[in-house]
Amino acid sequence: MRIGILGSGLMGGKLGTLWARAGHEIVFSYARSEQKLKKLAREAQGNARAGTPGEAAREAHVLLLAVHWSRVDDVLKQAGDVSGKTIVSCSLPMNAGDSGLVVAHTSSGAEELAKKVPKARVVSAFGTVPSEVLFDVFESRRKATRPSLVYCGDDPKSKKTAAELIREVGFDPVDAGPLRMARYTEPFTLLIAQLAYEGDGGPELAYRFERFVRKG
Ligand SMILES: NC(=O)c1ccc[n+]([C@@H]2O[C@H](COP(=O)([O-])OP(=O)(O)OC[C@H]3O[C@@H](n4cnc5c(N)ncnc54)[C@H](OP(=O)(O)O)[C@@H]3O)[C@@H](O)[C@H]2O)c1
Questions:
Q1: Is residue 97 part of a domain?
Q2: Is residue 214 in a domain?
Q3: CATH at 107
Q4: Is 167's pLDDT higher than 80?
Q5: What is the pLDDT of residue 211?
Q6: Distance from chain centroid for Cα 149
Q7: Atom 10 in ligand 1: which residue has the minimum CA distance?
Q8: With 90 as the cut, is the pLDDT of residue 215 above it?
Q9: Which of 8-22, 90-104, 179-193, 202-216 is predicted least confidently?
Q10: Amino acid 199: pLDDT
Q11: Ligand 1 mean position to 25 CA, how many Å?
Q12: Residue 211 domain flag
C-alpha cells in the first residue's frame, strides 16, 4: 500500500518506518528540514522516500496525519486534493502549550478534521499511545498477547485498512465505533500521557482491554 506521511516527527517518523518495514511504500513529508526526511527514508530500511506533502498525498491510498493541531490547516493546504483518501489521524486537538484540548466533549479533533476534508475518510487511530512505545510494540508483535489500540471512524472500508495498519505495528485493534467516539478517545490520551510522562515507569507504555467470557 502507498502511505503518505504528513508530519514526520515523533509519531509520523516512527509509524512510517514501521510500515516501511512491514512492506508498504512510504513517502515522508512535512518536516522543517529536507535532510531529516531523507534520513528517515534511508533508515526506514524499506521502500521509503522523502517528498512534499503534495507528493505524499498524490499517489497515496492512505495518509497519516501526524502534526500539531496548529499545523493541520497548513499541511492540508500543502497536501492538496485528498478526495477519496483514507486519512488516519493521530493528531490531537492540543493547545499551543500542549497542556489541554481545545476541542472536547461536544466535538473532537477527529470530527473537526473530517469537516475540513469532507471528501476524505477520516479514521482516528494511534493518538492514544506515546511514540516511545511504538518500536517496542512492533518488536513484540509475535507474542501471544498484544496491547490494544482503539480506533474509530465512519467509513467501514477505511476502518478495515486502519485496523490492518494497526495490526502491522503490533497492536490488537479495538473498534470503538463511529468517528464521534474520538470525543472519548482523545481525552483518554491525556490519562495515558500522565501515566507515561509523569509516572516513574517511563513513557514506553501501552494499554490492553480484557474482555471476560460471559457466563450462563
Ligand atoms: N508524540 C507522541 O507521543 C504523541 C502521541 C499521541 C498523539 N500525538 C499527536 O500526534 C501529532 C504529532 O505529534 P508528534 O509528537 O509526532 O509531533 P512532532 O514530533 O512535533 O512532529 C510534527 C512534525 O511536523 C513538522 N512541522 C512542524 N511545524 C512545521 C512547519 N512549519 N513546516 C514543516 N513541518 C513542520 C515537524 O517538523 P520537524 O521534524 O522539523 O520538527 C515534525 O516533523 C500531534 O497532534 C500530537 O498531539 C503525539
A1: yes
A2: no
A3: 3.40.50.720
A4: yes
A5: 92
A6: 11
A7: 91
A8: no
A9: 202-216
A10: 83
A11: 21
A12: no
- Which residue matches cell numbers 507474542? 143
Whole domain around residue 85: which residue ranges? Answer: 2-198
The response to whether residue 117 sits with its C-beta less than 6 Å from ligand 1 reads no
Rounded to a whole number of angstroms, the distance between the first and last alpha carbons of the chain is 44
Q: How many domains does the chain have?
A: 1
| Residue 129 near residue 166 (C-beta atoms within 8 A) | no
Matching residue, cell 490547516: 73
137 alpha-carbon distance from chain centroid: 14
Q: How far apart are CA 77 and CA 5, in angstroms?
A: 14
Where is 42: in which H helix or E strand? helix 34-43
Give the cell for residue 109.
479533533
Number of residues that this document lists for the chain: 216
Q: Residue 24 falls within a domain, yes or no?
A: yes
Ligand 1 lined by 32 (C-beta under 6 Å)? yes
DSSP 79-146: H---TT-EEEE----B-TTSSSBSS-SS--HHHHHHHHSTTSEEEEESTTS-GGGHHHHHHTTTSSS-
28 Cα: distance to centroid of ligand 1 (angstroms)? 13
Which strands form 62-65's sheet, in the order they lie side by side? 47-50, 25-29, 2-6, 62-65, 86-89, 121-125, 148-153, 172-175
